[in-house]
Amino acid sequence: MKKAFSEFAGTFLLVFLGTGSIICSEEFTFLSANAPAPIIGGIVTLLIILFGNTSGAHLNPAVTLGFYFSGSFEKKEILPYIFSQFAGAILASLLLHLIFPTNINLGNTIPTAHAIPSVLFEIFLTFSLMFIILILAHGYKESGYMIAVIVGIVIWLEIKYFGPICGASMNPARSFGPALISNNLQFMWIYLIGPTVGAFSAATLFNKIKQQKRFLKK
């Protein structure tokens, strides 16, 4: 329950502050359209530092599945983690809707590219993010400052350069919350399939590299 609440609180803060920065960039002139990318990257860094010791600070169903596929996460914890992440995202978007009732998208991830390229981009982005996380998590303490900073920078850069193309979600919960509350679910399948396939692919490659290293040692 402590881990599940940590994932709930962390994902709530990620979506509330992250998509909140997107909404503020649309509603107010003091925040530029380029501001949300570094803000979200910084938020992720802080949340990993805050919640890493408790739950590992996945804050993302794709990351949870990626750890499971890599063999470093127990099956019994998958549902509590993912349920908590989606619940946190939905509650955050509901609160943002109450604060900004006239905002149409609530920071929803909406691709400008066609559907298939957008899915491929989401697979690539999540693959890159998950692979880096797995390397860092097995080389350092998962809650360490190093992994927090590097993951935050990766997310910042991915959102900055790919956000205008495909939305750069890499996170089904982050996309589902605002999509549900804004009643704009038509692109949701992209952000369910893309990050899941990307995380699975990263875990598969990581497992093969681990097996190869063990074989070479023998």
Quick take:
This protein is mainly alpha-helical. 75% of the residues lie in helices and 0% in strands.
3D architecture notes:
The protein is mostly helical. The chain contains eight helices and no strands. The radius of gyration is 17 Å and the shape is globular. The N and C termini lie far apart (41 Å). 50% of the residues are buried.
Number of E strands: 0
Poorly predicted residue ranges = none
**Straight-line N-to-C gap:** 41 Å
Our estimate of the beta-strand percent is under 5%
Largest sheet: none
Secondary structure blueprint with pairings:
Blueprint (H helix, E strand, L loop, with lengths): L1 H26 L8 H20 L5 H9 L8 H22 L15 H25 L5 H22 L5 H10 L6 H30 L1
Helix pairs in contact: 1-2, 1-4, 1-7, 2-6, 3-4, 3-8, 4-7, 5-6, 5-8, 7-8
What key attributes describe this structure?
218 residues, mainly alpha, 8 helices, 75% helix
